[in-house]
Amino acid sequence: MGILELVKAKARQNVKRIVLPEGDEPRTVQAAAKLVKEQLVVPVLLGNPQRIQAVAQETGTDISGIECIDPKTSSKASTYAQALFELRKAKGLTEEAAAQLVQDPMYYGVMMVKLGDADGLVSGAVHTTGDMLRPALQIIKTKPGTKVVSSSFLMECPNKALGQDGLLVYSDCVVIPCPTAEELAHIAISAAETARTLCGIAEPKVALLSFSTKGSAKHELVTKVQEAVRIAHELAPNLALDGEMQMDAAIVPEVGASKAKGSPVAGHANVLVFPDLQAGNIGYKITQRIGGATAFAVLQGLAKPCNDLSRGCSVDDIVATVSLTAVQAQG
Ligand code: ACO
Q1: DSSP H stretches of helix in the chain
Q2: Is the same domain home to 156 and 268?
Q3: CA 148 – ligand 1 centroid, Å
Q4: pLDDT average, residue stretch 82-96
Q5: Which of 48, 170, 229, 311 is the least buried, fewest Cβ under 10 Å from its Cβ?
């Protein structure tokens, strides 16, 4: 079974309520209908109901039975505005500004998740990553024990000898441009949790990547990754985690055995932690475009799941991301 089928099967076991703030966006409307048909989640569309209905008609989509909420007229808007004001007043947010903000479907959706009226949120077919991330970071905040929100890509590779049956987790490829050593350690631990929760990888083997393996090169960038390994060992002593190591030492058994002898991870890593966002983002795209892998992205480290879409996403991409969000919401 591929990763998507695995995730969909899990989503069906305990159906969650997922809010879609871009409710009048044609691919989102079609995805909502598909999610209901496949019994994956209970979707909630945000936006003007007449507009949503018009989009459904234009795209020939049956959305009967799907809840549509207009943040501008919702009876919950004042409750959300008051709660948002309480959460952000120390940051200078006024009551008037909070009332204005919750009319924005992105903020309204995040408040639904915050207050437990939805189990998770998916957006980004129209909004940029930053527009989607900022309200989630400001309002949902990080999980207890986690210092940062980051991301993982679940990479399903044609070469089944890699990772766990061809499945590898890459982190962080979306959020933190230039992580500190402590942030890298938290990214690594979150990525291991993502591997367990979403990929069914019972024993994550986490490699912190660099251009150096076990001190083969000396540079401040290498020292940062070594420091991240030290901190991660302190925070998660039972996790199979090692570094710094080069990509080949992480995933090729013979190279791992020769360059990082005795490492519990080298040669067999299934979670790859990149030293910064440039490396991570480039790395996943190389694996996808040249290596022929399929990539699924999730955010990790948030107290409740919110996930971002690519603006070029298809209906099926939205269905996949919502299914992943639902499984994250199961915990
Ligand atoms: N984890 C936890 N909290 C965070 C994080 C984080 N990684 N980053 C910011 N925050 C918090 C801040 O502490 C702050 O909280 P506060 O307001 O309560 O004090 C709040 O979020 C806003 O922080 P800012 O620093 O003002 O946010 P910023 O404008 O820098 O935006 C963002 C943060 C959006 C994540 C930024 O780092 C970013 O743009 N990252 C890159 C996104 C991107 O473009 N990715 C690549 C493309 S995606 C792709 O290719 C698939």
Answers
A1: 3-13, 26-37, 49-58, 77-88, 95-101, 105-114, 129-135, 181-199, 220-235, 247-251, 253-259, 277-289, 315-330
A2: yes
A3: 10
A4: 97
A5: 311
